[in-house]
């Protein structure tokens, strides 16, 4: 049968109310030449993003295909379908549930605006059955929801001349058999308008469950039900990554929200002889230390940050409160499939012994007693010069955790830490400044300049990645000068990104901060 072609803190910071005896440590008699890493941007916190688990826009499917793997279709009615008068295409009139319909590839091409996809070249088309009603299913793959999940898609009736198309939305917590689904779109079928309309259904009632979601066409002798741009999204139960470079923290603050500190043993901390700063000598775990704003400023290269103006400093507590048991703990994170922690660390003055620390994880609480070391049974030593450290957290993939750095130095001086990142970035690491490549401005908005001097940089292959290691875009080069490019960048959400720059001999990665304004 044919249808005619229609035209138309919590914080555990232990504060003391008493004035402790002033304990002194002196600056070393010699300075050390430590390269100073420059950066801008305030970067302390955690990142959470809604993530798309599965999507279907029909663009990767062959024209007029009936197979949408890993999505599933069921033609429960098995009836022959209506055809379009004067138009042919593969499977026309055959029994099927949904077809990847490309109106530009029919014979002749269909130019009617009413049958164009919501986006791209194709949409999912469910032609009405000669024996009504339809009972045709379009079902997602098996999906693990975290929290706040949603099922969204665009829907349309090709024409209202034979009545609007009708459909239902359903979910199954067992299997993909249509009989296992529960309708979540209401007691009566929904009607699709004759213009593209986005529909969104909350899946919050199925938090932390494995499900299938489905669209069921139940039209009665209408014509063509159209769907496009389907997405199933979820929000991780906690942020998937966190970072702390101390630049957004006030000078000499003891608070690093949303990070937390715990000073288990307490006790007065050592001073620096002849220098003063807020909280000097007080009991604390970590302090946002800015040597340039100490009174008088400290210019010793050995006490400079790894980057920026500040770092996290853990001053040793004097006897009898030694050894240190001081913690810097991340917010609660939901780690992804390939997580790690990386940071830069340093011993200020090894004359008092190398600073010692552990890296540990808790899956239960902020209580230090619940943390398990991931850095080994013996405390690590922080080097005399800034050193990069990375520890894999694969044993905690897809779990909610706290990650802690514990300073356990016994009667030392200053344990220094900077540029902490926890999450998954697939090995992307900011290159060292001696690579001779600079990018500015940073923070960035929609343009950035790369200065690479005499290096030979390829014109293609520049990629912007997010902290998960996902390619965000290939920035366009809008102007070229000797040793310099200007790039056009699409606006991004605020946060940390990595710009991968291809040179002849290797790839250089530069950390970019987007301000998000």
Provide a descriptive summary of the structure in words.
The chain is mostly beta strands and 517 residues long. It folds into three domains: 23-48 and 239-423, Jelly Rolls, CATH 2.60.120.200; 51-235, Jelly Rolls (Sandwich), CATH 2.60.120.200; 433-514, Immunoglobulin-like (Sandwich). It has no helices and 39 strands. It has strands at residues 2-3, 23-25, 44-47, 51-56, 72-75, 83-84, 99-101, 123-127, 136-139, 143-144, 147-157, 166-172, 182-183, 190-191, 197-202, 210-217, 224-235, 241-244, 260-263, 270-272, 287-289, 311-315, 326-329, 333-334, 340-347, 356-362, 372-373, 380-381, 387-392, 400-407, 414-423, 438-440, 447-451, 463-466, 471-473, 476-481, 484-488, 495-502, 507-514. Strands 3, 18, 21, 22, 25, 29 and 31 form a seven-stranded antiparallel beta sheet that branches. Strands 5, 9, 10, 12, 13, 14 and 16 form a seven-stranded antiparallel beta sheet that branches. Strands 19, 23, 24, 26, 27, 28 and 30 form a seven-stranded antiparallel beta sheet that branches. Strand 34 (463-466) and strand 35 (471-473) form a beta hairpin. It is elongated and about 90 Å long. It starts with a strand and ends with a strand. Mean pLDDT is 84; it is low at 3-22 and 29-44.
């Amino acid at each position: 049968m044919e249808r005619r072609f229609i035209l138309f803190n919590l914080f555990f910071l232990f504060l003391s109310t008493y004035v402790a005896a002033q304990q002194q440590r002196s600056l070393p008699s010699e300075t050390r030449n430590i390269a100073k890493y420059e950066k801008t941007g305030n970067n302390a916190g955690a990142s959470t993003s809604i993530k798309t688990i599965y999507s279907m826009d029909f663009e990767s499917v062959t024209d007029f295909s009936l197979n949408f793997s890993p999505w599933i279709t069921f033609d429960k009615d098995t009836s022959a379908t209506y055809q379009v008068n004067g138009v042919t295409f593969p499977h026309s009139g055959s029994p099927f549930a949904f077809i990847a319909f490309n109106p530009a590839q029919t014979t002749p091409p269909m130019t009617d605006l009413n049958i164009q996809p919501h986006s791209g070249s194709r949409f999912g088309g469910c032609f009405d059955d000669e024996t009504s009603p339809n009972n045709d299913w379009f079902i997602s793959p098996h999906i693990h929801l975290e929290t706040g999940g949603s099922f969204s898609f665009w829907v349309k009736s090709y024409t209202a001349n034979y009545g609007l198309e009708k459909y239902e939305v359903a979910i199954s917590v067992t299997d993909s058999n249509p009989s296992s689904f529960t309708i979540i779109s209401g007691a009566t079928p929904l009607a699709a308008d004759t213009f593209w309309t986005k529909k969104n259904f909350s899946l919050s009632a199925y938090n932390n469950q494995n499900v299938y979601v489905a669209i069921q066409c139940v039209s009665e002798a209408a014509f063509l039900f159209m769907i496009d741009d389907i997405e199933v999204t979820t929000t991780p139960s906690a942020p998937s990554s966190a970072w702390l470079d101390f630049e957004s923290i006030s000078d000499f603050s003891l608070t690093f929200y949303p990070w937390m500190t715990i000073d288990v043993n307490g006790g007065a901390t050592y001073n620096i002889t002849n220098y003063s700063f807020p909280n000097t000598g007080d009991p604390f775990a970590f302090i946002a230390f800015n040597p340039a704003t100490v009174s008088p400023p400290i210019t010793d290269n050995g006490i400079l940050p790894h980057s920026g103006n500040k770092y996290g400093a853990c001053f040793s507590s004097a006897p009898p409160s030694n050894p240190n048991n001081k913690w810097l703990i991340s917010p609660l994170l939901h780690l992804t499939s390939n997580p790690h922690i990386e940071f830069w660390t340093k011993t200020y003055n090894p004359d008092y012994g190398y600073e010692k620390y552990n890296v540990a994880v808790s899956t239960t609480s902020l209580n230090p007693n619940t943390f398990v070391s991931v850095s080994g049974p013996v405390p690590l030593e922080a080097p005399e010069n800034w050193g990069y450290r990375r520890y894999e957290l694969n044993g905690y993939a897809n779990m909610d955790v706290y990650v802690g750095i514990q300073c356990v130095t016994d009667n030392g001086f200053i344990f220094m830490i900077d540029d902490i990142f926890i999450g998954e970035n697939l090995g992307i690491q900011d290159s060292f400044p001696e690579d001779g490549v600079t990018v500015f401005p940073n923070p960035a908005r929609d343009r950035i300049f790369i200065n690479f001097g005499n290096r030979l940089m390829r014109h293609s292959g520049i990629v912007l990645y997010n902290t998960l290691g996902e390619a965000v875009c290939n920035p366009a080069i809008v102007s070229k000068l000797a040793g310099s490019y200007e790039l056009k960048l699409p606006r991004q959400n605020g946060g940390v990104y990595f710009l991968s720059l291809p040179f002849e001999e290797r790839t250089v990665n530069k950390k970019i901060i987007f301000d998000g304004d």
